[in-house]
Every structure is written in structure tokens, then in C-alpha cells.
């Protein structure tokens, strides 16, 4: 099992709407609006690193209103 945290920067005023959409993506375990450099933090899991990066991270990045993402794969 591979776990990652995906930091999401959104367009102004879009965080609440995007949070609902992101929570519905397969592989997303949790997602929360946060204060700081990014607007949403997502915890995602998958069987393989490739699957996580290709499906979950790409699906989030392609949502209208997502300005930027940064993915951190857990190593231990």
C-alpha cells in the first residue's frame, strides 16, 4: 500500500466546492481545507506508486479551479 499527501492550491473562492469533488475521487481517504501556502491537503492511497500518481494526482490536477499541486509520497 502506497500513501501520499497531495497539497492543492486553488483559485480564489474555489476551495469549498473543490473539496467535495476531491473527496469523491477513488483513492482519496481524506481531504481538508487548510491555512497556509496550499488550500487543501489530500491523503490518498493506492496499491502502486504509479497508480497513485497517475490516477489520483492527475485527476486532482485536472479539476477546473485547481491552480497547482505538489505530491509527497510516504516512505515509511
What does this structure look like?
The chain is an alpha+beta fold and 76 residues long. The protein has a single domain, classed as Alpha-Beta Plaits (2-Layer Sandwich), CATH 3.30.70. It is 29% helix and 39% strand. It has a 4-stranded antiparallel sheet with strand order 2-3-1-4, covered by helices on one side. The longest helix is centred in the C-terminal third of the chain and has 13 residues. The protein is globular, with a radius of gyration of 11 Å. The mean pLDDT is 94.
List keywords for this structure.
2 helices, alpha+beta, globular, Alpha-Beta Plaits, 29% helix, 76 residues
What can be said about this structure in brief?
By secondary structure, the protein is an alpha+beta fold.
Instruction: Please count the beta strands (DSSP E, at least 2 residues each).
Output: 4
Query: How would the global form be characterised?
Result: globular
* Highest CATH level, the class: Alpha Beta
CATH architect. name? 2-Layer Sandwich
Mean pLDDT: 94
CATH superfamily: Lrp/AsnC effector binding domain/regulation of amino acid metabolism (RAM) domain
Radius of gyration of CA atoms, rounded to a whole number: 11 Å
Number of alpha- plus pi-helical segments: 2
List the domain count as a whole number.
1
Biggest beta sheet summary: 4 strands, antiparallel
Strand fraction equals 35-45%
Helix content: 25-40%
Termini distance? 11 Å
Order of SSEs, N→C? EHEEHE
| Class based on secondary structure composition and strand pairing | alpha+beta
Record the strand order, biggest sheet: 2-3-1-4
Amino acid at each position: 500500500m502506497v500513501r501520499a499527501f497531495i497539497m492543492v492550491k486553488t483559485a480564489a473562492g474555489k476551495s469549498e466546492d473543490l473539496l467535495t469533488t476531491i473527496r469523491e475521487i477513488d483513492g482519496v481517504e481524506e481531504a481538508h481545507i487548510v491555512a497556509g501556502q496550499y488550500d487543501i491537503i489530500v491523503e490518498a492511497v493506492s496499491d502502486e506508486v504509479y497508480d497513485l500518481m497517475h490516477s489520483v494526482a492527475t485527476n486532482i490536477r485536472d479539476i477546473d479551479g485547481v491552480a497547482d499541486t505538489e505530491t509527497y509520497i510516504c516512505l515509511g
